[in-house]
């Protein structure tokens, strides 16, 4: 159903379950849609994607409330009670896609979907996907419905990428960045995993696992490399400083350990390195 409202074409298509078995199929799709209040106490039989184009709405799902502003979206699992309605003075315009199919449960497991996933920021690909893919759903012959199945699959993969990048952004903000900041500002002092856990608020095993995924080493291994890099700079720029002084300045209280770690990393002792400069 397409209609014009205030000079804007409102686009919406609804489907019945296809006679031919398809991996994925569309139940409904639309954009530029003037969203009214919806209440589903028993949920919906299809997986439901909803995003805001303009205005805003309030979504209640799984005893949680989220405000859906422009460039934000939510994916709701089947049969999960939910409701949503416009908020504010501006008309709430949405884009949506409801879909199902034999392989959808596996794909939702891949997305780590339980009852819902909320996206507080949509990347441009996801944000414009429905309006750009809409024409694929205008026909209902066999070849077109196969194409539609592929389009839905691509959309799910785009959602996964959006979710992954969003998670990485969260990890950087809450774990990686605070650890790096603390290490670079306090490298000359003794630093422990317990101190870093106080900085991030996460457990030592979890924060170390996240850090290792990003850098291929633990925070304390990163710290050791950072100290040695700083030592190289001091050896190059300050010929007047004793080796022990430089070791102390970069956080090595034991001069023997400093020399051992430096040689292990650069295959030269600090004195040998200085002589090459």
UniProtKB/TrEMBL annotation:
One Pfam family per UniProt: HTH_18
Record's keyword terms, sorted: DNA-binding, Transcription, Transcription regulation
Matching InterPro entries: AraC-bd, Homeodomain-like_sf, HTH-like, HTH_AraC, Tscrpt_reg_AraC-type_HTH
Superkingdom of source: Bacteria
GO molecular function, one term: sequence-specific DNA binding
Record carries keyword ATP-binding: no
Residues of the HTH araC/xylS-type domain: 177-276
Name recorded for this polypeptide: Two-component sensor response regulator
């Amino acid at each position: 159903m397409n209609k014009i409202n205030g000079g804007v074409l409102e686009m919406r298509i609804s489907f019945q379950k296809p006679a031919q078995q398809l991996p994925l199929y569309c139940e409904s799709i639309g954009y530029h849609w003037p969203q009214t209040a919806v209440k589903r106490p028993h949920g919906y039989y299809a997986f439901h994607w909803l995003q805001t184009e303009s205005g805003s709405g309030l979504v209640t799902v799984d005893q949680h409330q989220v405000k859906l502003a422009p460039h934000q979206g939510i994916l709701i699992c089947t049969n999960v009670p939910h409701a949503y309605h416009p908020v504010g003075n501006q008309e709430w315009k949405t884009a949506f896609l409801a879909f199902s199919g034999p392989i959808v449960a596996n794909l939702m497991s891949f997305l780590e979907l339980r009852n819902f996933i909320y996206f507080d920021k949509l990347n441009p690909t996801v944000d414009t996907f429905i309006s750009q893919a809409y024409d694929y759903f205008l026909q209902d012959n066999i070849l077109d419905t196969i194409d539609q199945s592929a389009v839905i699959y691509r959309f799910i993969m785009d959602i996964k990428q959006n979710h992954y990048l969003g998670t990485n952004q969260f990890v950087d903000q809450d774990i990686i960045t605070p650890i790096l900041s603390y290490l670079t500002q306090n490298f000359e002092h003794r630093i422990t995993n317990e101190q870093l856990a106080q900085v991030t608020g996460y457990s030592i095993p979890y924060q170390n696992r996240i850090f290792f995924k990003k850098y291929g080493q633990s925070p304390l291994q990163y710290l050791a490399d950072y100290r040695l890099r700083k030592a190289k700079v001091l050896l190059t720029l300050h010929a007047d400083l004793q080796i022990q002084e430089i070791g102390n300045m970069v956080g090595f209280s034991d001069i023997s350990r400093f020399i051992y770690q430096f040689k292990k990393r650069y295959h030269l002792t600090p004195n040998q390195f200085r002589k090459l400069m």
